[in-house]
Amino acid sequence: MGAASVRADFEVERLRSQVSTLEQLLAVHEKTALEQSRRLENIVNSISDGFFVLSREGRVTYLNQVAAALFMRMGAGSSDLLGRPLWAKFPNLAGGAVEQNFSRAMHDRAQITFEARFEPVDLHLEFHAYPWEDGLSVLFQDVSARKLNDLRREQMQIELERQVQLRTADLQATLSELEAFSYSVSHDLRAPLRSLDGFSQALLEDYSDSLESDGKLYLERIRANAQKMAQLIDALLQLSRVTRAEFNPAPVDLSALVRQIASDVRASDPRRDCEFTIEDGVSAEADARLIEVALQNLLNNAWKFSSQRRQTRIQFGVAPHNGVLACYIRDNGAGFDMKYSEKLFTAFQRLHDVREFEGTGIGLATVNRILKRHGARIWAESAPGQGACFYFTLNGLSAEAPKAKSA
Fold first, then answer.
1. How far apart are CA 282 and CA 317, in angstroms?
2. What is the pLDDT of residues 62-79, one digit of tens each?
3. Is pTM, for the whole model, over 0.70?
4. CB 192: neighbour CB atoms within 10 A?
């Protein structure tokens, strides 16, 4: 065998070896590609959204299991769609918004998101179309439940607005009745009470010599109760006015307001030993007229319930309390048991006997109503015989100068 023949055989064997190697590499590549394809298909089938692919001619070349299930609900199975134009199976989509949007996505090479409703089965689908070189990949979700919830929400909103209108009308009617009641209380009830008190006083003055001690006592009690009834009427009218009054918030100098009220309170009994300590620079956003009524009630309460002390001490200032900045009015008066504190701000609820401390039981209810109108709140801390401290919040509360001065 010549050298040429040997070389030829060697080349043949080398080529066969290379072919074998290439075949092995091709097999590995095909296996890898098949595994990747299966993995990709598993991923696509595992998503909760429908997914399908359209060729440039509109033929369905792939659809995942979710898409197949949704199209089945619409009347077409996978075998009816794969390799066929989508519009052939769903002629009602041809020429409509769905086809137009798909065509625009392919033509403009731009992602498009849109919604479409399918009447026969009342399906609402949201499509996300992604163009690529040979066609269109489409991801879509069934948003029927969301659409139904949106419809229900709209209906609830309409019903809520109707209810608000009805309640507003009822409230306006109630306010009108309240105004009529206030007028009646203010005029129709005051007159008989004044007559009762006046004629009782006339009897005591003109026929005092003819009356026995019991008769005089009875008349005095009639007068006292008539006057008490008048005070209750005044308190109720004040509470009513607080509810109906216009609300005009603006910056208010609370320190100056408290100082003025303290001066008026002190003038009611100038012989009383009293020390007012008022922090300067306290201000807040409030209705000046209403907040003045609230502060008057709080300071009058402090003055009243500390009347049995040899020296009355009343403080006004601002301090952090449980994480919020609050105004406080503190006194060294009779105090109260905190287990009854829920009664404090309810009309006609009293924690002290009227024979010990006079009053109508309306003041703190009025304060509470005023602060609620401000979106604020009030609370108290106390113990029997150890005074009381009333805290309340207000919007925009600040204290520019923390020093306190005696008034």
1. 7
2. 888 888 888 887 777 667
3. no
4. 11
